Amino acid sequence: MSSTAANDPRQPAAAKRYVQTAVSPEDLPVDYSGLIAVVFGIAGVMFRYKLCSWLAIIFCAQSLANMKSIENDLKQISMAMMFAIMGLVTNYFGPARPGGPPKTSN
User: Which of 37, 46, 61, 64 has the greatest number of CB atoms lying within 10 Å of its CB?
Assistant: First the structure.
């Protein structure tokens, strides 16, 4: 045990504690999953694509899990979530698409 401590090339006295620098919210990298969630949410509402609305919810969850700035990201995530929920509600509970097959109840 003492022979390994004597041959250790590290210098514990020279070690410095890491201090993270403060980054302003404008300098943070772009949250691409939040941006994709907004795009899919809008496409789900406007074009009435169920898949886009479901993908928007998945990307909202991913963006929520990787949130770095609470004030900036929460606005974007909430907007994307609202578009995704509106798309799902209009797709599943709204009137049928014009030109599509009529909804039948069995």
Answer: 37
Name the pTM for this structure.
0.69
Residue 56 CB coordination number (10 Å)? 29
Long-range contacts of 10-18 (CB under 8 A, 24+ apart): none
> Do 48 and 54 form a contact (C-beta atoms < 8 A)?
no
Helix (H, G, I), strand (E, B) or coil at 41: helix
For 22, counting Cβ atoms within 10 Å of its Cβ (0-12 exposed, 13-18 middle, 19+ buried), the class is: exposed
Mean pLDDT by 10 residues, the chain (106 residues): 68 86 79 92 93 96 86 84 94 80 65
Q: Which two tokens stand for residue 5?
A: 């401590």
